[in-house]
Design brief:
The complex is a heterodimer of chains A (290) and B (352). Chain A is mainly alpha-helical. Chain A is built from 13 helices and no strands. In chain B, the strands form four sheets. In chain B, strands 6-7-8-3-9-10 form a six-stranded mixed β-sheet, sandwiched between helices. In chain B, strands 14-18-15-16-17 form a five-stranded antiparallel β-sheet, with no helix packed on it. Chain B has a four-stranded antiparallel β-sheet with strand order 2-1-4-5, covered by helices on one side. Classes of the chains: A mainly alpha (290), B alpha+beta (352). Chains A and B meet through helix 8 and helix 9 of A and strand 6 and helix 3 of B. Chain A: Belongs to the binding-protein-dependent transport system permease family.
Amino acid sequence: MSTTVGRSLGRYRAPIVVVAMLSSLLLIVPFLVLVATSWTSGSFILFPPEGFSLDWYAEVLADPEWTESFRLSLWTAALSTAIAAVLGTLAAIGLTRVRHTTARRWIRTLFIVPIALPPIAYAVGLYGVTVDLPFLRGTLATLVVGHALIALPYVFVIVSGGIARIDPALRPAASTLGARWPLILWKIELPAILPYLLSGALFAFVVVFDEVVLAVFLMPPGEQTLPLQMLNASQEAFSPELTAASTLVSGLALLVLAIVPVGRVLRRRAGRAASPRPAEGQAAPEGVTP
Amino acid sequence: MTIALSISDVHVTLGHNHVLKGVSLDVRPGEFVTLLGASGSGKSTLLNVVAGLQAVDSGQLTFDGVDVGGRPPQKRNVGVVFQSYALFPHMTVGENVAFPLLAARRPAKERRAVAAEMLALVRLPGMADRVPATLSGGQRQRVALARALAAHPGILLLDEPMAALDKQLREQMQVELTRIQRKVGITTVSVTHDQTEALTMSDRVAIMRDGALVQVDSPEDLYRHPVDAYVAGFLGEANLLPTSGGRILDDPLGEDADGTAVLRPEDLELVPADEACPAWHVEGTIQLLSFQGTRFRLELLTDAGRKVVCSLPTSVDASSLVVGTRARVVCRDPERVHVIAAPPARPVPVAV
């Protein structure tokens, strides 16, 4: 495809390629600057950095405030992603059972709304819930619920897209072969959806892990998620600790995102003999991974 | 006469569409019946009604004399081959074929044995460990058939079974499918819009139009004795001409006509100019003469503006057939002339 597009550009090809290269630089250069400032041996975030040391990394990794907030972020994000994955998948499957076209369109829109609404709306609303239900005060329940709400549309959209690519005759076929709905769900529909479910969950996790607005409102005092910790660090002292921590997290994120394509290649290689789904499972994740 | 499948007075409405308008059909045990009709005629809906995938407004459905109208598809014991084949992509061929046994909670050993047996039946032995994505279209169809037959259903339903295959493979699979159907001896209802497929595979063909059955008969009877102009024109090519008192009456309005003669192009032959007019003859101006390998195709336009198509053997002297000259054609065998009681529609005006 890229070659035909390339050819069709004709004499505009060279300038377009240059612009594209510059744009991609725009995406990556800020990150490179960030990495560079964390190598400084001074005590300020400066570019170009003064000298070279990994002291700030040691500082971050030794500081329980950073490691604790990282751990906290990791498990709250995992929990809300799990909730979003279950609800989003059920919503997407359930929507296929709605026969009425107009109703289906409205329900679909409703499930996508959290992407469009500002997070502050959910933050304020859930904060009100904590005030009214005192037993939730001091727990992370509202934060996890809020994050699950924000993550749900990503799972829902990607899984819905996946379902649309699956042969609609599979379910009637299974039912004429004697399968009832639990068997159809477990043996036919979920396995077919699984690749979409995984990429939707991954996307949701990345979004939730970085989320800070809800965290500001809903974190119990004394605890901090990583994005909140970074926000606070940037307001208190503009220390290279901050950029070192960011670099570590970004590195981790890149690693996770890299695992997906590598896993895909391995699966495809193994699939020459055994695996089904040649094209279906892979196109969508490629399109959506951030 | 025993009846394996009986559909009586079935009505189905989808939204504001009256899709099936009182359809009744009886199928004998082991019979192969094809529902043939244009798209939108309701043939697929009727198949879904039999499979239990479509609820009916009213009407009765019995298998071997037992009312199954209230049963869900799981309990109807039907095997369905879907147009897309609907093979489960994440399962192997063997798992696909044995799926009905998995649904019935049969042990793994039995499932493997049945899968092997069914794959042998459709001539795909040793393919159990492949996945559907690696199979060709014809192989997928065989797997779908094996899966549909695995639970020994009482009735086999085929929804446009050849639609996804190319022409050459289609003819091959028609023979193959008929062989398997005869061998298993299963009562079969198929749906298609392809008339060749319907004629080659079926014991009887049911022509559907606008949610109703127009005629149910053997392929030959349908071709020779169509009940109306629609059936005559749907199966093969037919010349529909007004008749009155055993003669063809070529008047522009067809007002005096009391019937329609169905003349098949291959039953017509040329009448020499010096011969007296035989009974079933028609005269017109030659519009087109084309050589088609084994036959000549001759098109006449009658004085009233009706088109008549003849298929002539190549032994005919083509030199006398010049476009623009007059010619007479006749059907000499009165047995071959089928007369429908209703007069035909008026001819479409042709610009000369």
